[in-house]
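Section 3.1 - Work completed
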Amino acid sequence: QAAMGHPRFASQRHLVADAAGFMSDTLPTLMLPPDLPRRVVHGDPKISNVLFNEAGAAVGLIDLDTCNTHSWLVDLGDAVRSWCRNGREDEDEAFHLDRFEAILRGYAAEGPALTAAEKACVAGAGRLITLELASRFARDVLEDDYFAYDATRYPDRRAHNLARTHAMLHLAADMATHHDAMQALVHQYLGG
């Protein structure tokens, strides 16, 4: 939001104004409580950082430079963002509720017990991280200096990041339409 008011970005502001307004209204409603348990997390569990064997089973994670202690919901949110859709980050894709269910089923079978406060945030974690990523892409539309771009599909980094911003907003909106079903699955698999 601060970047929106900077004079340096006046010529690009119109590109992300609606997105910035939506995110500044929505993100605060999804923020995680500060007193959640901290656990060791990967920090970037997108599908391209998961190693699979020949049979298609996940066998490990790569890109360990983001490992840290944080709320487990940050990892869950990024996994939901990445694993519960198809395609690239710049394509409008639907949210796949069945994949969210598979994540919960797997966590219920293998993961540690969650607190009531953590369980209360599970259904919104994917939307939170998706909107945070949308805000990073929107900021780069303004600053034009961080994310790489696909020169075969876009004229410049700004155009690619604008597509990424819109794709993440589309995904977050689709997640919101599934919120009640996601809550029911959280209750089914994780209790509470």
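Second construct:
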Amino acid sequence: MKNVILINEFMYILFLSLTHPGSVHDKTIADSSSYPLPKESYLMQDLGFQGFDLPGVEIIMPHKKPPGGSLTPEQKEANREVSKVRVRIEHVMNSIKHCHIVRDTTRLLRQGTRDLVMEICCALHNLRVTLNPWGSMV
């Protein structure tokens, strides 16, 4: 199962895409979803979304090492700063996967069931964050 999520700086999940099989590329999921982002906001994404763009939204991505070359010290430092925030996003994904039904093989094949399971697990994550705030990632 594969989903794309949007979170705010307090690790609260704001958006969950539809569930796709694991072989679907991240950018394909992003292109097929409509994101509720206001203009002049920031979107941090990894290299799996390279080429994805939203009008009026500033995209923050790590710098990719050029073939046969290397990154400048400034680019390496920028990548470290992005990584500090990305690790918090990975914590959110781990929090969702506390529900074993999400990370284990599921045989719930009825249409929409996997989406419902993911929505419930994201809602449980949001409840945990509401009851025990994690602090801002900025």
